[in-house]
What we know:
By secondary structure, the protein is of the alpha+beta class. It has 12 helices and 9 strands. The strands form 2 sheets. Strands 1, 2, 3, 4, 5 and 7 form a 6-stranded mixed β-sheet that branches. Strand 2 and strand 3 (49-51) form a beta hairpin.
Amino acid sequence: MAAAQATNMLHYMQAFANDQQHAAPTGYELKADEALGVNFLVCAQTGVKLLEKPICFPSGVRHYQGYRWLYAYFELKGIRNILEGALPPMLPATTREPQAFMNRDAIAQNFDSKSQREMTGSCEFCVAFRMPSELVTEGNVPNRDIWLIRFGHDKVSPFLQAVSSGDAEKVKQGLQNLGSDVVDDDKKSALMYAAHAGHSDVVSVLLAAQADPSQVDKTGNTALMWAAHSGDAQVIKQLLAVSSKDAKNVHGVSALEIAQEMQRAEAVAALS
């Protein structure tokens, strides 16, 4: 069955962010870029290549609605940096998608200062960002739609990265500014990240900071279930002391059944 066509670009990007499939809206054609290894939505009006997948930054809390969609424009070097995860501390952007401009010259003219034009370059490429509202600032420039994305103010992403990499000291530092129940956009908590990665020391840090082991992600998985998935018996024992092993996710599967399915012998033994 063919995917439904998105009514506009915001509809398309929101659907993509929610793991839903929609055909490109009118005025855009999906094309693969073999050199860069990604797909773009090519705007017929401007020729701008809009990255098919938006980049979404989590707010860190559940049920958060204060997001803003912004479009940043780049030359080839800039899009390569973005694809490699090299984000600048600040980035000029606009609420206007490529099709909202007459041509690429109009896009460049929207970014009025020399420093902004140097970052946007040829405006050949574009990326949609979904950002928590506290990380963006509207520019007070007459007749131009300019916003600044302040990546350098993001505390949630570095915190979750520290949890994933097992950097207990950075996690402790992050907890000074963030709550212990920080989540990503899939509602996967910091404790789930640590459990999935098998970082027992980080699990201890988070539990000591009152992280809630009963929290579930969007599919109903608990931290114990994520530990069962990776098979770390030590983490499982830590979480069993504060969790129910009888809980089941939306698929009706328990932590023990996950460990059995993944053939994690030590995890099965710890959960039995």
